[in-house]
Amino acid sequence: MDIVDAQVHFNLLGSLEAGMTAMDAVGVKAVLYDEYWGFDERSRILPGYELPNGAFRHVFPLAEEAALRFPERFAYLVRFDRRDPDLEELIATIGRMPQRKALRVVPWTEEGFSQFAQGADEPVFAAAEKYGVPVFVLLPGRTRLLRPYLRKFPNVKVIVDHCGVRLPLGAPPAERFADFEDVLALAEFPNVSVKWSHAPRLSSEGYPYRDVLGMLLRVVEAFTPRRVMWGSDHTQSKDHHSWAEALHYIRDTGELSGEEKAWILGRSVRTTLNWPAPAR
């Protein structure tokens, strides 16, 4: 099976070669690389630098290197500050530069969420629609904020990050899926997909996370397997579960058909991002 991980901060695995050895051990064929070094003192995601107008321009040197050296195994996504004076030109590079496939919007702070709710990211979505760019959006517990954007930009492929819910470690089981109905309701928009990543953190059980698998089945029913993509976010979730556990509770279950697994574990992200599998 062609297994594609829709999110790994691959630079945090060490060298490319070491990370690829881990991929091979798990059975992951390809990775969507999200370059992330940490945060600066103003909670801006590194690497990058500040522009004269105060905007922060993110750069992706290690993801670009991986994509150029091993294009059959890596594609990557990018982030751009909505205040960047060259915003539209930067978004236009997605899909044109080798293996640069998508944009990620990460409001992150309470101020960022508030600005997103007020429509501050409309220029991002407008450029994404103009250039046919898929947009991953991280709005944990706030997916309702997407609705005005989805109505205004119906042609943008939008992927809801990290199951769309908060990841409340240690919370009572009843609270772990508190925002889930809002996520399921987005299935009415045909341009919306769900990235099923970090899900084992929501479980009140150990592997194979039967309660989380039950929620995945509801997502698949609402969105269809074509609009659900698996991701591990392994470097951020390995304190809770292994890369193999993140994958195999889905791959080994009898609750999904082989065709459904093929979509969730690889075909969905490839189709959404126009990232064809290499020829056999």
From TrEMBL:
Entry keyword set: Hydrolase, Lyase
InterPro entries, sorted: ACMSD, Amidohydro-rel, Metal_Hydrolase
GO terms assigned for molecular function: carboxy-lyase activity; hydrolase activity
Domain Amidohydrolase-related, residue spans: 65-266
Annotated protein name in UniProt: Putative TIM-barrel fold metal-dependent hydrolase
Species, as recorded: Deinococcus yavapaiensis KR-236
